[in-house]
Each structure stands twice: as structure tokens, then as C-alpha cells.
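## retry 2 of 3
previous attempt timed out at serialization; input unchanged, resubmitting
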Amino acid sequence: MTAADRPTALDLPPLDPLPAETQAYFDKCEDKLGMVPNVLRAYAFDTAKLDAFAAMYNDLMLAPSGLSKLEREMIAVVVSAVNRCFYCLTAHGQAVRALSGDPVLGEHLVMNWRTAPLDARQRAMLAFAEKVTVESAKVEEADREALRAHGLTDRDIWDVAAVAAFFNMTNRLASATDMRPNPEYHAQDR
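## retry succeeded, writing output
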């Protein structure tokens, strides 16, 4: 594998051959998305790490929640904008475009989410996610009460915090390894 073919700047070749379950997962991604996201390819050197990452991602982003899939993707974009994570801004900005049907919303969230056309609930969620990202030690009961005032349950607040925390971790890993988004993301849903 050449440096240009690697999903990160690290030389961590994927297991060859991939275990059957991993290959089936990658085939499913190829069928549904038309590609295997580079974040998954990056983890393919260690299936235990890949499985842990995929399980956490799938639980946070796809499992039933009081937050819509779009709202969770919006949190991912706002956290990634604060952290300036190229990979996640590209991949999750595309997801915002796809889920919202709005080709501008993802970029609006990247540039300045406060000026985006959002409802009060979304604004409260994104402000909380940003505070978790920038100064989590200063989150206090008043911050949680602000979310409750917009109809979020304590379970929803957990989910906002968990999505924000997960993307803070993945942003740092992606930036530290120079993870590159798949080129396909850039043109999708525009």
C-alpha cells in the first residue's frame, strides 16, 4: 500500500486477509455508501479496535434516541468545527447535508453554527456540546437545566454529552494521524 492509499499518515497496513466478519462489514459499507469510510479502513489493522469503535459509533449515532440522527450529526459537526478536524467536518458535514436535504446547512454549522437556521432546542444542544468541547469542567446544573427547558430529558442530555465526548476523542485521533476523508464525501448531497 502506497502512502497515498493509506487512510492516515501512519503505516498500519490492514490485516490481510481481513477476517470474514470485517470483510462482510466493509462489503455492507460499500453496498450502502459506495465506499468504505477511511475511518474504518484506518482501524483495519486491529479488528478488536475496529469492532470497539464501530460498536460505540453505531450505538451513539444510529441507535434509538430522543435525538434525531440529524441532531446527532449536527453535534458531530459543531464539535469537529471547534476542534478543526478535517476528516469529521467533511464526513459529518456530508451526513448533515444528506439528512437535512439542505446543501448549505453542513457548511453553515462548520463556519458559525450560531447563525444557522436552527430551532431553540437545537441551539441549546449545540451550545451544550460546544461547552463540553471547550470547557467541560465548567458544565454545571444550569447548563443541564437549559436543555431541560427546551424539552430534553435526562437521557437526551446523556446522549448529547456522549456524542460530543465521542467526537472530541475521534477528532483528536483523526488529527493526530492525519486521517483523510474519502474524496466521495466532498461532492455528495450538494
